[in-house]
Amino acid sequence: MRALIGTRKGLFLLEGLRGGWRLSNPSFLGVGVTNAVVDPRNGSVWALLDHGHWGPKLQVSADGGRTFEERACPAFPEGCTFDALDEFGERTTGPASVKRLYTLVPAGPDGGLWCGTQPGGLFRSDDGGATWAVNDALWNLRSAHNWFEGGGGIMLHSVLVHPQDPGRIHVGVSCGGVYETADGGASWQPRNRGVIADFLPDKYPEYGQDPHRVERSGADPDVLWQQNHCGNYRSTDGGRTWTDVMPGHPLRVGVVLALDVSAPATAWTVPMDSDERRVAREGALVVCRSEDGGATWRELSKGLPSRHCYDLVFRHALAVREKTVVFGTTCGSVYVSEDRGEAWQRLDAWLPPVNSVHLTG
What we know:
Blueprint: E1 2-7, E2 10-17, E3 20-23, E4 32-38, E5 45-50, E6 56-61, E7 69-71, E8 81-85, E9 91-95, E10 100-106, E11 113-118, E12 122-125, E13 133-134, H1 136-139, H2 141-144, E14 155-161, E15 169-174, E16 177-181, E17 189-190, E18 211-216, E19 224-228, E20 231-235, E21 243-244, E22 258-260, E23 263-269, E24 287-290, E25 298-300, E26 318-321, E27 324-328, E28 334-337, E29 345-346, E30 354-360
Antiparallel strand pairs: 1-2, 1-30, 2-3, 4-5, 5-6, 6-7, 8-9, 10-11, 11-12, 12-13, 14-15, 15-16, 16-17, 18-19, 19-20, 20-21, 22-23, 23-24, 24-25, 26-27, 27-28, 28-29
């Protein structure tokens, strides 16, 4: 088992060996790694970089992360404009530019790639990342549906391709909502029925919600979960309707979610104290797991700090594969469980703030 750990100051490789875990020296030392993923079709490792002042970059490795080559970064065509509401409800306009790369996934067996970006752009490449094209149909909805920037901007962070039908795709946009296409991106429909947006005048709008992470079940592609700004939700009909699976729960606020690939009723999340403070609740770090579709949740904390803890777990920084669960925090801690979260061990390392964790065999 291996884990790619993207941090604010480089990409680390964590390898599970007999008798323990070994951490590699970082690639891209000093450079922000927003996310890092493995393409299961060919084993290539993709690193989504954030150079701060110099902007985003995209790198790929064909040798498991030992060496990397640069690929073209998704970019809006000349003349493309950005139009959305800011966090105070004022409309902002101007030239569109990619500020950050958030996620990259295979588009299906044909070799294509999808990339989700800030400010809410979805891009496709059909030549291994040499060139990219923005999906105009989704991009044009930002104005018509009044997407707004919130506190962190408009982020397209989740892209879920149906495993049997690559033309059917769900995306999660913060702050826009969940959208689905059934025709490969030619048209999109909002999929937010039943999701509350308690920060808007209309509490159940068709669009405008703030999903923090959206995931599709590997065992049943019509089962979707989302960790939302306003709670945790589950859908059993491909996102057409959603059910709040943590109503009133004191640990329902968070930004991260991961699923068991073989069990559509099982999910993990790491709660935080509140939207305002965004630290571990009451100074204690816990992981919540449900194995019955969200009807009940267990708090898993054996081996986790129980006092004076101020960690937060970002949206891509929790991963599950078989019995192994790994997550990293904003305080640079990485925790590993080899029994589905029943007990945890802290990696003996003090990393930069962790942005992402991706588990691979």
